[in-house]
Amino acid sequence: MSNRCAVIGVGQTKYQTRRLDVSIAGLVREAALRALQDAGLTFADIDAVVIGKAPDLFEGVMMPEAYLADALGAAGKPMMRVHTAGSVGGSTALVGASLIQGGVHERVLVVAFEKQSESNATWALSTHVPFSASLVVGAGGYFAPHIREYMRRTGAPGHIGTLVAVKDRLNALKNPYAHLRIPGIDRKTVEATPMLWEPIRYLETCPSSDGACAMVLSSEAAVTGTPAWVHGTAMRSEPIFRAGRDTVSPQAGKDCAADVYRQAGITDPRGELDVAEVYVPFSWYEPMWLENLGFAADGEGWKLTESGATALDGDIPWNASGGVLSANPIGASGLIRFAEAALQVRGRAGEHQVDGARRALGHAYGGGAQFFAMWIVGSEKP
Amino acid sequence: MRSEHVLEFPGGYTRTTGPVIGRFLTELRDARLVGVRTAQGRVLVPPLEYDPATGEPVTGEWVPVGPAGTVESWAWVGTPRPGHPLATPFAWALIRLDGADTALVHAVDAGSAKAMRPGLRVRPRWRAERAGHITDIESFVPEVTGMVAPIRLTYQIQPGEALSRFLAKVRDGILLGGRCDSCHAVYVPFRSACPQCGTPITEEVELPDTGTITTFAINNLPDPRAPEVPFVSAYILLDGADVPMIALVGGVPAHEVRQGMRVRAVWVPEAERTASMANIKWFAPTGEPDVEL
Known about the structure:
- The complex is a heterodimer of chains A (382) and B (293).
- By secondary structure, chain A is an alpha/beta fold.
- Chain A contains twelve helices and eleven strands.
- In chain A, the strands form two sheets. Chain A has a nine-stranded mixed sheet. A two-stranded antiparallel sheet of chain A has the order 5-6.
- Chain B is elongated and about 100 Å long.
């Protein structure tokens, strides 16, 4: 049995296309200081710092752990960097949690960030290394074929992705930190936007954002304020190319979900969880992950989306915050999911609060859907 | 009939500055900005001998201001004239220097009108040789808010043994795969170890250049490796292989590509072949019936 771990502070920056008013150090400090303020603490109360960011080419910062140690109050303390592509924010939270659960530290600050405006993610993902036998064009170019295969397998009607794109952006209107704010967005708005990587339309993709997110994690003895208790944590990975790999519903995602549910004692995620923050950077990944994470049977995820079950007033709201579709500082996006899950069970989600949320799922995935990180947090001690 | 007539007092008129403007210009010559305080406590920049609001004399108190200031409003000059302070497009702006209560008019060299806005923070660019004149400030320029950090890494990349073996065969028009000694899955391109079970792969398998499109994207964003937009990037499962390759599909309109479609590699002429996947222009439909996926 591991020691109990709680989230006692959450800090976010406003996510937007360009934060020209702050340096990277200023950006991460903004999130970190807000998290500390939420916990009623200062840098002096922190034992160790864990930082995550997107791959180095994304904004050309190779060693954030060295560059940002003093900006995050880590002088004289352990500082480490986590690196699991797009899922890195989730993995960063889990590495921080493991330091508490293992009894190594009492309070850990976890931070993740991205300043997409300083470069271009599609460039960073399409560097055309010599001798490569592959043709991948950015994240959308990579994921579009798997979405197409999902649609073929399940016979899902073409408007399902549109429904998610609208739902998450309507939720974003209730989240002051969200990047995309499109008042009055509806299916027509989304369907009027061009196909980028067919079957993915422009408004079915995530924006490029600048932003940072931070959490203060604590042992049971060191809790201050309102805690969100960690009920389960899991990470899984798998090779991007292997024979028999199901790229629509990767085994690593299923295994990760099974592990985290087992730890939290959950057998029916749709019935037993109150809200989920799931990494959905392209709208169709909602029905795909509904199946991968066991909220719906194989082939049935799109029906759940269509029924409105995942809307803010549905029985299992997904991405009440607006999700990755409404703000995507890539390196931070996973941590934001984990932090939003914590905010929900702490009753601190503001206008997008799901009434009475007691247990919430935070989820992140990355690479070619080959890295998965998940946690379940609850308002009560595990 | 028309004749040009120039009216210019030889050497230029002189202007006696008086004590207040004289002090301002003297400080300016020393690259300092000062204002004068009125009886009401306001700081005038540029200074006057009197408070323009009340007509009262100003106090004798001089106040350092700036050097930074804030643009209150501006007008863009797209085509500067000979008498203008700058030869390139610039803004005339009302600039309130930090510590001043009034704005002065000066030029802002912002590069483009898009860079101008009320609230823009600017600083003076001083001339090296100053004479005690408002043009001792050549112009104002925006404060530094960002910089470019060029990074260029040059690598010498070697393809490694397994990929070299594959590419050598590609030069001969052959797609080389490898069968895992343990799980018997066939991987293409040829690789030295099975990504699933880690077992070394020793058995080479020459695969045909035909296969089936399992799934694909229609890309509407340009890519240097694709001849046009839209283009199709597809997962192609070569006959006899257990993992698909991602490759370009051509010879068919993008919207006629189907999952299950049979395709064959279109090779560049033999004389042009190198040890590279560029040997395959793209995969084109064979015309065989689609495969049930």
